[in-house]
């Protein structure tokens, strides 16, 4: 069954997560806090995965799929206005990770998967580009890696974990969420709280 346009992800859904993070004292070293942040990220990735799947199943056309992804991106990447600076910083990390998810989904829907290279080839090229401070190229390589992840190629999480901390490691983290979402698009549903 196709999800009606505009219902893949809503501002209210994102805000519910932000409110929960705001209410709880977030400590990235704490397992529950880390899980909550990951769930926030996975939840948005799942919405993207559902759009891709509906597009692949021809339930929505390309234009609708791209509009839906743009809508989610606008919701998720909006600046967070909270008093606790550390919480804002942690959510900013999630937003950064998801940037690559949105672009990879758009690229996949518009152009299909990258025609050559492997996920790890692109991730390594992205890391090299980041080291040379060419962040546009780094993002471009990560996006290509993402199209392959969407197409079913596996992102080696161990190899990604060896990346130096930076934008590429954040983007690879987002692609890991997308990979999980593509294989199991219901993973965060039990965590959903509509009454926040």
Automatic annotation (TrEMBL):
<dbReference type="InterPro" id="IPR014518">
    <property type="entry name" value="UCP022079"/>
</dbReference>
<protein>
    <recommendedName>
        <fullName>DUF2150 family protein</fullName>
    </recommendedName>
</protein>
<dbReference type="Pfam" id="PF09920">
    <property type="entry name" value="DUF2150"/>
</dbReference>
């Amino acid at each position: 069954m196709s999800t009606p346009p505009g219902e893949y992800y809503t501002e209210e859904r994102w805000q519910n997560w932000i409110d929960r993070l705001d209410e709880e004292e977030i400590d990235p070293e704490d397992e529950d806090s880390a899980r909550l942040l990951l769930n926030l990220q996975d939840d948005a990735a799942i919405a993207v995965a559902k759009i891709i799947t509906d597009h692949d199943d021809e339930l929505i056309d390309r234009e609708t799929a791209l509009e839906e992804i743009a809508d989610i991106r606008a919701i998720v990447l909006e600046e967070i206005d909270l008093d606790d600076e550390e919480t804002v910083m942690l959510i900013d990390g999630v937003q950064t990770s998801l940037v690559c998810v949105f672009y990879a989904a758009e690229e996949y829907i518009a152009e299909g998967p990258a025609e050559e290279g492997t996920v790890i080839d692109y991730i390594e090229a992205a890391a090299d580009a980041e080291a040379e401070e060419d962040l546009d190229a780094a993002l471009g390589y990560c996006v290509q890696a993402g199209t392959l992840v969407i197409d079913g190629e596996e992102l080696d999480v161990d190899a990604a974990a060896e990346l130096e901390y930076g934008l590429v490691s954040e983007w690879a983290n987002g692609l890991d969420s997308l990979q999980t979402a593509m294989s199991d698009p219901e993973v965060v549903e039990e965590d959903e709280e509509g009454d926040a």
